[in-house]
Amino acid sequence: MYIDSFDGSWFDHPFWRTGFLLTADRDLAKIRDSSVTAVVIDVEKGADVGPETGSAPRGHSSQAPAKPASPPMPAKARTAEPASAVQRPSGQEQDYEHASQLVLRSKREVKRMFAEVRLGRAVDAERVGALVDDIAHSVVRNPSALINLARLKSKDEYTYMHSVAVCALMINLARHLKLDEKLIRDIGMAGMLHDVGKTTVPDTILRKAGPLTDSEFEVVKRHTERGYRVLQRSNGVPDIALDVSRHHHERVDGSGYPFGLKGNDISIYSRMAAICDVYDATTSDRPYKNAWKPPEALAQMRLCEGQFDEDILSVFIQSIGIYPVGTLVRLNSGLLAIVVEERDDDFTCPVVSSFFRVSDRRRTIVQTRRVDAVFERILCAEDPADWGFDDWETLRDTALTQASRTTHRAA
């Protein structure tokens, strides 16, 4: 059947958009398990139109209940899964695996797109849109998975992965701002294409390890206007993407470029992009600067008084959490821990896996629990390199996997 819309807010349903053909049983199960009370279907677009009597007239939508009215199975009637049954990956493991594959594919796609633009070709908006659709779906499934994986990039792949990360961050921010869902694809494309003008900047400047000279910085600043012109000559690129490519370096206080726009003269989309762009840039290793820890980056952005839209920045911080998943933190109990899950009800008290004792610099038995502000609290974020964790990526990924399995068994 063709889903035309859902009853209620789009935050209540598990899809990034409405208006799609329902073909998979797993998607039907998602609707039944959600808080949606009804769906509106379009019988002209669906493949389920039949001659049965009593069906809705063609050209009209009909409303159908999303959940069966049958009572839940009594607790005694439920049977446990046999011990010999095949252990399937938990939902969070699947989300991270799916996001990991999507990140790799996205990197290839952005590399291809940038290479074609360097050759003077237009952007293939249809192909970019399809990639953005997949990213949006992944963000809705598990925002932490894709956003954190996209942030973990090497200096060499920064130019490409930055586009993917900003795309995901903007989609996630748009959802938390409760913007019209019909704009989400355009906002995601704006994030993906915001730096396409960097294709006109020589690699010797982009990859320079030291500070840029004034003349080199002037070359970099031209990427906004050049990117805008590239997108202008590309068919199917939404106006939001054109606006963001030109204005994502504008600042609310007028200190940005290329035009020094102020306040509401900058669109909400470019104000969103400015925040997402700076956050990902400062939390990524770049040729001329090592990454800040996410909490440090957010704190520094707060200190840039007047540069960013304060209301949007507050929502952005809520959307990613003060201590994003995968962050190394120090607890007042004298332990180091990895943040493995964020909590919407209190961003200062995430779920963590402690594994290292500070006093004697020894690893301990891994314990996963929610930080309790009464008995335990996070003192600060830590840099893994300061503690000699050469196997940090393995440590982090193992903690996330084990925590997801624990959550799955407890569910």
Automatic annotation (TrEMBL):
InterPro entries associated with the record: DUF3391, HD/PDEase_dom, HD_GYP_dom, HDIG_dom
Domain HD-GYP, residue spans: 137-332
Provenance organism:
Stakelama marina
Coiled-coil residue spans: none
Listed PANTHER family: CYCLIC DI-GMP PHOSPHODIESTERASE PA4108, CYCLIC DI-GMP PHOSPHODIESTERASE PA4108-RELATED
Q: Which Pfam families match?
A: DUF3391, HD_5
GO function terms (MF aspect): phosphoric diester hydrolase activity
Segments of this protein annotated with the region Disordered: 47-99
Which superkingdom does the taxonomy of this entry point to? Bacteria
- NCBIfam families linked to this entry: HDIG
What is the protein's name according to its record? HD-GYP domain-containing protein
